[in-house]
Amino acid sequence: MRVFDEASTRAALPFDRLIPALRAMFVAGCEVPRRHVHELQPGDPQGVTSLLMPAWQPDGGYGVKIVNIAPGNAARGLAGLHASYLLHDARTGVPLALIDGDQITARRTAAASALAASTLARDDARQLLVVGAGRVAALLPEAYRVVRGIDRVAVWARRPAAAEALARAWRDQGLVAEAAADLAGAVREADIVSCATLATAPLVQGRWLRPGSHLDLIGGFTPAMREADDDCFRGAAVFVDTDEALAKSGDLLGPIARGVFAAGDVRARLDELCRGAHPGRRDETERTVFKSVGTGLEDLAAALLAFAGTGSSPAGQTA
């Protein structure tokens, strides 16, 4: 069995290969049961939530990810998410690889946002605002630059020092980047607003979003979490990664319950965008929103891409 640590997993999943791999998997499809969700400290908002996410192709790979989300870790000086991924051969059940789940999760999450933006963001989008300063947020400019000509990046975070540190790291990578002190002003200037937080109350307000902008909502993967207020959805073209978003995301459940829009108003899922069943953005003035909650399909695509780099296939044959 191959073991991919943090560094080797990161090296195996460059965005210029990972984004096409996700697109191909969304087109091909795979079996993705609904995730198991377990609260390890029931009733504690700072407690750990553990997700078990399986996915497989009957004649290919079978993977299971365990991801633990711990909002209380910020106060401990620890990352809020930890995960591991075990890839098997679906035809034999033989374990093939143990892969760093944090890297898979972060990189496939950023890649999925960029993949959606390839049909939902304006072709001339140049300015990206990242809301949040965690592991996924740090990757978003690199991922978005694969699909759009991003030349300016701003970052806002609840802790200004974290935003300053991330902007400095991006500048060290050659990006034109700055920390934003004023969230409203930064949203008004952005072509793309990408939120990657664990917020439980809206951060972005719809009245700040400019016509033709694209709003990407990565956090809010439980009913109790929200990153955007109701006005973000009024008059917008709404897209989701999977139907599960309509059952899991507080960003969607709240506005739907209040009659802001109906579940049937969602334009398309990410697989429909990838297959060309829906064109995505219709014109330059349309405001688009993409809500993701993640899917085991993306994890499997990333794991298979990493394993393919060893020269092997799920059947154990040379690729």
Describe this structure in words.
α2 crosses α4 and α2 packs across α11. A hairpin with a 4-residue loop joins β3 and β4. It is built from eleven helices and 14 strands. Helix content is 34%, strand content 22%. The chain has 319 residues and is of the alpha/beta class. It has two domains: 115 residues, 2-Layer Sandwich (ornithine cyclodeaminase, domain 1); 181 residues, NAD(P)-binding Rossmann-like Domain (Rossmann fold, 3-Layer(aba) Sandwich), CATH 3.40.50.720. The protein is globular, with a radius of gyration of 19 Å.
Average pLDDT, to the nearest integer? 95
Could you say what the CATH architecture of the largest domain is? 3-Layer(aba) Sandwich
* CATH-assigned fold name of the largest domain: Rossmann fold
* CATH superfamily placement of the largest domain: NAD(P)-binding Rossmann-like Domain
Brief account:
The protein has helices at 6-12, 15-28, 73-76, 101-120, 135-147, 160-172, 183-189, 245-248, 250-257, 270-275, 296-308, and strands at residues 2-4, 36-39, 49-56, 61-69, 81-89, 95-100, 127-131, 152-156, 177-179, 192-195, 214-217, 237-240, 268-269, 288-291. The chain is α/β, with parallel strands linked by helices and 319 residues long. The strands form two sheets. Strands 9-8-7-10-11-14-12-13 form an eight-stranded parallel sheet, sandwiched between helices.
Key features?
eight-stranded parallel beta sheet; ornithine cyclodeaminase, domain 1; globular; alpha/beta; 2 domains; 14 strands
Describe the SSE topology.
Layout: E1 2-4, H1 6-12, H2 15-28, E2 36-39, E3 49-56, E4 61-69, H3 73-76, E5 81-89, E6 95-100, H4 101-120, E7 127-131, H5 135-147, E8 152-156, H6 160-172, E9 177-179, H7 183-189, E10 192-195, E11 214-217, E12 237-240, H8 245-248, H9 250-257, E13 268-269, H10 270-275, E14 288-291, H11 296-308
Parallel strand pairs: 1-6, 7-8, 7-10, 8-9, 10-11, 11-14, 12-13, 12-14
Antiparallel strand pairs: 2-3, 3-4, 4-5, 5-6
